[in-house]
Amino acid sequence: MLAVLLVAGFPFAALVQHLPPEINLILLRVYLFGIAGAYFALFWRKGQTLAMKTWRIRMVNQTGEAPSVAQVWLRFALASLNLALLGVGWWAALWRKDGQFLQDHYADTRLERY
């Protein structure tokens, strides 16, 4: 993910070099957030990111099929909120019977090993 964001930042830097630094920082954060969202949405839609392949985990919807575009974007938004809340959604998985994260519960997705 870091490599994707680094490469994506180069064209951004060239385009906004004449703007004030305060605006650059805000625009850069929004831009990189969108790039990260697009990365995860693309790969989650297919079932897994490269890291998920390594750990032999895939994401599916509740019927076992590929998640919809709306589901992956909702999951990304909820996972981002989860990160901002210091991982409360990840900690909740310890107490849930199905062991799923809160973002998966609300996006109607699930992670499964294969």
What's the overall geometry? Answer: elongated
Integer tally of domains:
1
Structural class: mainly alpha
Low-confidence stretches: none
- Helical residue percent band: 55-70%
- The succession of helices and strands, N to C, reads HHHEHHHE
What does this structure look like?
- This protein is mainly alpha-helical.
- The protein has one domain.
- The chain contains 6 helices and 2 strands.
- Strands 1-2 form a two-stranded antiparallel ribbon.
- Helix 1 (2-15) crosses helix 2 and helix 2 (21-46) packs across helix 4.
- The model has no long low-confidence stretch (mean pLDDT 96).
Write the layout of secondary structure elements.
Blueprint lengths: L1 H14 L5 H26 L3 H5 L2 E5 L7 H16 L3 H5 L9 H6 L1 E5 L1
Antiparallel strand pairs: 1-2
Helix pairs in contact: 1-2, 2-4
